[in-house]
Amino acid sequence: MTVRLAAAGFQHETNSFAPRPTGFDAFARADSWPALTEGAALRDAMDGLNVPLAGFLRAARAAGVDVVPLLWAAAEPAGEVTWDAFDRISGRMLRLLAEAGRVDGLYLDLHGAMIVEGERDGEALLLRRVRDAVGPDLPVVVSLDLHANVSPETAALADRIAIYRTYPHLDMAATGARCLAPLRAMAAGAPRPACALRHGGALLPMAAQSTDRAPAADLYAAAAGVDSGAEAVEIALGFPAGDTEWTGPAVLAYAPDQARADDLAEDFAARLAAAEPRFAADPPLPAAEAVRRALASVGPGGPVVIADVADNPGGGGTSDTMGVIRALIAQGARDAVAGLVHAPDAASRAAAEGVGAAFDLRLGAAAPWPGDAPLDLAVEVGSVSDAPIRYVGEMYGGGHAAVGRSAVLRVRDPGCDLRVVVTEIPSQALDRGFFLHHGIDPAELAVVALKSSVHYRADFGPIARAIVEADAPGRLPADPSTLPFRHLRPGLRRAPER
């Protein structure tokens, strides 16, 4: 009998300290990824994208495997997912699964750090609903983000889990594709592998998790070396702004027998523990110091990139803190651009008044955060747009970002030369396309300040003369121990030991 599989996705990275809950409308509309999509339309929506479900569908098509696409939904990281959104999306997914008829296995493209109103373990809640619908025997294989907070229940409810191995996440589609072989094998009757789960001892700062450098690069290279089909090691470095019992790094190991799975898990848990001090090395600098270092490094051969790591909307930041921009103005930055600042009122006013208009505005800090405050600025509109912005870098594979209205505002201060890109809808500044769209080539500037933790490295790293990480106040701080946690498990350290 020919194997027939079903596939679906439901992704959210929840920041417990973000001011806005994530409702159904956030999943229903497009952002950097497609809007909520159902059925056969998923094939076109996913075509060419670096998305796990897209990779799974491409691998299945190449292998001649019949897959029924059910539903896919994702929303920009923010506060907890409302019960209404979770219930509607998961309910619709399960109805579509029931209508699909006979399936021999299910693939789920999840994140691993979803928090739902009233339930801190969103993925386990979803998998419980799936198991209630399909029973304990249907093979279910899941892909998770490198920043997943993996609970024992999630590990137990999934027959196999695959986790991204790169940050920036260049292997999202590849991770989805990795899920096909084990799911296909189990759907054809292969036994479920033994699984072992081990958790790390400390939260790891997001900016330190880049797999472009040690220690994360070494850990993931070693994990990839184990992957033989019969055995696999998967590592999640955790999302430190999710306030749950299982927040933090984890190791999953799979093998034909439990003893071997346990041995692999113990080995990699020990590697993770040994690497912990290196995750605390070279922390980001306070904003003023980071800007001083950046301006001192200006010269030929590309821009100095300043990463505003704590205000990354891709991790639930508000994308409107002013620490780095304030320092750029105070220190007289020249030939500089900063973005993306989520400022709906400023973007709307710029669009209404048009290019060349000059006005005063209060920018940033719409939702107060300790240590941050808005800036009162005089600005001139340099460019406006209401079109989606095409990605040019590798990570999003030629897709488009829906940011609503966007504008370039030049700060009217004779002491500096700074432009700020503002958007109506928040989006992480991880791609040069956001600036090229407005006629600004980052490669030709002296300083580029980006609200991003690590993803910017994929597209800006190759053009950067130097990179300086700044730790201005924000909801994804370089030192996670500064966050007001309430639900972490006893014994988990809130930052790595140096």
Describe, in plain words, how this protein is organized in 3D.
The chain starts with a strand and ends in a 28-residue tail after the last strand. The protein has 498 residues and is α/β, with parallel strands linked by helices. Strand 16 and strand 17 form a beta hairpin. It is built from 15 helices and 19 strands. The protein has helices at 24-28, 41-46, 52-63, 83-99, 122-134, 152-157, 172-178, 180-187, 216-226, 258-279, 287-296, 323-330, 344-353, 433-436, 456-460, and strands spanning 4-11, 37-38, 66-74, 105-110, 140-144, 160-163, 194-199, 232-236, 250-255, 304-308, 336-342, 358-363, 375-385, 389-390, 400-401, 406-411, 418-423, 447-450, 466-470. It has 2 domains: 4-279, Rossmann fold, CATH 3.40.50; 287-478, no CATH class. The strands form 4 sheets. The chain has an 8-stranded mixed β-sheet. Helix content is 29%, strand content 21%.
